[in-house]
Design brief:
The chain is α+β, with helices and mostly antiparallel strands. It is built from two helices and two strands; from the N terminus they run H-E-E-H. It has one domain: Orthogonal Bundle (Helix Hairpins). The longest helix has about 80 residues.
Length: about 200
């Protein structure tokens, strides 16, 4: 604990600090709760997207197994770009998945099986799920870091700053009370001395 001046001005400063800490702490606690809730939502969404991706992969693999052993749909698709936008959660900027843009390469309709168009659509959806999961992973990383920092601040205020400031206020009040009592005692002693010297 840092040395604190035992003065009325310091008492006022410590009281002001305590009020600020106590006013700021609920905001931090609310932000922590909000971040925890959003992280749970993002984790649930990621699980949902992963399940959807597994369904698509399973369907696509069944088609390929039935109709063609050496067929590679991924050769017919080029990923052009991942489109995200910026979102804001509890004052934190996070990427939000919008879409994955593709370019379908030209192919000979007679050389490929009739289900190739449906297969390409499934593959595009699978690749979009992969991209969305990467964006959700990034969201979790950003939100997790912010939650860690916010939790540290909550702990700092709850466990260190507020108790330390209350202890400083208590010490200053005891010291000032002792000083006031000592001044009263000195005053009475002086008054008694004056009274005794006047009476002699």
């Amino acid at each position: 604990m840092a040395a604190v001046k035992l003065t009325k001005n310091e008492l006022k400063r410590q009281n002001d600090m305590l009020k600020r800490f106590q006013r700021y702490l609920p905001t931090l606690q609310l932000k922590k709760q909000q971040l925890q809730m959003v992280i749970r939502q993002v984790e649930a969404k990621r699980r949902h997207v992963a399940e959807r991706r597994e369904e698509l992969a399973s369907d696509l693999n069944e088609w390929i197994a039935v109709f063609s052993d050496n067929f590679h749909l991924e050769r017919l698709i080029d990923i052009e770009r991942l489109v995200t936008e910026s979102g804001n959660i509890a004052g934190i900027e996070i990427p939000v998945f919008k879409e994955l843009q593709f370019r379908i390469l030209d192919y000979d309709l007679y050389a490929y099986p009739y289900w190739v168009d449906s297969g390409i659509d499934r593959l595009k959806e699978m690749l979009s799920c992969d991209a969305e999961m990467r964006v959700l992973d990034r969201q979790l990383e950003i939100l997790g870091e912010e939650l860690r920092i916010t939790s540290q601040r909550v702990n700092l205020f709850e466990k260190i700053k507020i108790p330390e400031t209350k202890e400083n206020i208590r010490r200053i009040r005891i010291y000032l009370g002792d000083q006031q009592t000592a001044a009263v005692v000195r005053g009475k002693i002086s008054k008694n001395k004056i009274n005794r010297s006047e009476s002699t």
